[in-house]
Amino acid sequence: MRDGELTWGPLDRAGDRDAVAALAERCHAADGGMPEVTTSRFAADGVTTTGGRTATGVLVAAAAVRPLSPGAAFIGLVDPEHRGRGAGAALLDWGIGTAGPDLTVETEALTAEGERLFASRGLRQVFAEDVMRVDLAADPPAAPLPADLVLHEWTPDLAVRFFTAYEAAFRERPGYPGWPAERWVAWTAGDDEFRPQWSLLAAGPGGDAGFVTSSEGWIVQVGVVPSWRGRGVGGALVTEALRRMRAEGAGHALLDVHVDNPAAHLYRRLGFTTLGRRAKFRR
């Protein structure tokens, strides 16, 4: 691999865990995003890794290729103080050679330099979303629910109605998976960190208007059925979920939103700021 200043070799899954975590913290402090997500990729089953160390043994570049079905996924890290010396290109070329043709390149903190590097290898962006955070030290801003709607907490009996609202809100969105109700409900409520008391359905006399689902520290999904859009339903749902989180001691909340989703403007009005941009690239 290039960058003759570094010594390259596979990472030890257990022994290098702390070094990878420290590198991820340095990278994400500069670029945004969530270092714990990046670090988890290096511990995945079947992962292949490489790293570059300085003469004093400090890990300043690392990459992981993990199997998917089909294909494989690559993620890489270069210390901000060591960029511009070819380490990023060396890692990406190693990933392309290791993974083979069916490769997805992932990043939890997309930068302009990263975009240029990916483009230089013929990779195109196929997915991007912003990870956003709001501080809950103070009450969320007021966002009243329309007067003819009421909120219901998630219960098993209401799960299908939540799904119906989800389907109506998302089926025209890019990337909609088309799951049946049973799969979506299991994915939502089967998470150990799912919080039914923070997951709400907005119901009215003419039918359900929207929903929010939440887990520990996260607004997971928010959807408003088309006939109710533009009437404050989404803001009211998110605000009430945040209020309940704060009442139970949460200090902040996170969410992710597709870059083409206009709901990002709503989240900014509610106090969310962008931590970083998560993206995927393919040939």
From TrEMBL:
Name the Gene3D superfamilies for this protein: 3.40.630.30
Q: Supply the alphabetized keyword list.
A: Acyltransferase, Transferase
**Residues of the N-acetyltransferase domain:** 149-283
Any single GO molecular-function term of the entry would be: acyltransferase activity, transferring groups other than amino-acyl groups
Q: Which SUPFAM superfamilies match?
A: Acyl-CoA N-acyltransferases (Nat)
Task: Tell whether Acyltransferase is among the UniProt keywords.
Answer: yes
Q: Which InterPro entries match?
A: Acyl_CoA_acyltransferase (IPR016181), GNAT_dom (IPR000182), YpeA/RimI_acetyltransf (IPR050680)
Q: Which PANTHER family does this UniProt record tie to the protein?
A: ACETYLTRANSFERASE, N-ACETYLTRANSFERASE DOMAIN-CONTAINING PROTEIN
Name assigned to this protein: N-acetyltransferase domain-containing protein
State the taxonomy lineage.
Bacteria, Bacillati, Actinomycetota, Actinomycetes, Micromonosporales
